[in-house]
Design goal:
alpha/beta; about 30% helix; binds (4S)-2,6-dioxohexahydropyrimidine-4-carboxylic acid; binds zinc ion
Length: about 350
Amino acid sequence: MTDTLTIRRPDDYHLHLRDGAILAAVTKGSLDFGRAIIMPNLVPPVVDAAMVRAYRARIMDAVSLTPGASFEPLMTLYLTDDTTPATIDAAAEVCTAAKLYPAHATTNSASGVNDIDALTPVLERMAERGMVLCIHGEVTDHSVDIFDREAVFLERVLAPIRSRVPGLKIVLEHVSTRAAVAFVKEAPNMAATITAHHLVIDRNDLLAGGIRPHNYCLPIVKRREDREALVAAATGDDDRFFFGSDSAPHTDMKKLGCCGAAGCFTAPVAMGILAHLFENKGRLGTLEAFASTRGAAFYGLAPHDDTITLVKGDPVALEPIATPDGPITLFNPGFPITWRVENSPALDGR
Ligand code: DOR
Ligand code: ZN
């Protein structure tokens, strides 16, 4: 029986580290990863090069609180209706990618883009510069059922962007449907991130037998068949599907209110969850590709030379992490997490 696995250091190609009082505690939870694409949906959002630089410095201060930690934040710019090609030129020095939130699609997306057609000159400038576009792929048209918003986005919004700016490198973030997997497989210059939570829960884990707010995220988890398509893509051989946790911490106060926030806090246990899943599928040998090398290749980054070792043992305790703003509950995948990263700063004290 395999009980240790050494792989190149993984990266997280979609991460929310937040800001302010919870930034330090949240950042510590991601230090198993060598790099991460950092989401810019702060309040206020990170919309220009100066804000990106300042946010990056705050993240590096948080990283430095853990002795010996090495972690590279790959910064992103939040696109708005006011973003111009000149904003892209200035941000290109400090950003790996820019993020498109359709306005009102998800948490802190009120300043997102209302008129995506009008963004074409910005997207063209990104294509010229080789800057990746990360997309939250859901329509915000509330006449569309929440379970259909990703599938409708593919045809109504993503296909037109693709044909208007064919040279643009796009990552469709946190895919949640079989339809999105099929779309990405057919499209050139495209990739998709897949989260740990979308790989292990479906809507029954959210809603059947009682509502579980900690399993509520956007895009909302879908049917079992959708989850199976995501698992097939993650554990399969297509290089365009790679790991992005979308680890999105909210304090319990925000998750458990009468209008609970969307987001699963997965980063500290993500590698353990993935190892469990890949092992069950008989695909542990593909975990390194999914978590450590495919994303780097798409983004044009060298894979890490250093490694992590996952070891199997007693289940990890899922106690909430303490922050000055109150506790944040860790995502519980519904099975004991027996794999952990050896010497993980993310799991210190657990
Ligand atoms: O579940 C989510 N939480 N999905 C998102 O798109 C945003 C994120 C957040 O920032 O909380
Ligand atoms: Zn996200």
